[in-house]
Design a protein that fits this description.
With 123 residues, the protein is mainly beta. It has one helix at 12-21; strands at 31-41, 44-45, 56-60, 64-67, 72-79, 82-87, 90-99, 103-110, 113-121. Helix content is 8%, strand content 51%. A hairpin with a 4-residue loop joins strand 4 and strand 5.
Length: 123
Amino acid sequence: MSCAEEIIPLTNIEFSKELLSGSINITGQQHKVWKIDSMSIDNVGQVLNNSQLNYFQKFDAFGSWSDYDGLSGVWDMPTQNTINIIIGNNTVEYYDVNVLSFMLKMKRQSEGQTIEYFYKINN
């Protein structure tokens, strides 16, 4: 008789977290960098200049976050389609999050407008 390790499947949230940030498993990738691809404000596509197209967000599997602008903080995914990023005393709340292995889409409200971001994996 062999000693078989029981494999416990990931929950939907755990799976989404791994797609977003990598795996805490030592053999896996422990962070992911998402580079902006496009965005819209109130469903109107925006033209991004070359500098804006350099923008990225980095999500670490252990919960740290940073971006192109040099900001850093922590992130959490309380539900499969929400992400909260805490920078100092401020929380940025994203909703309608859809994360795949190659693409990240998320929205947030700002000054009464709906901003939708589309990112592609960069690492």
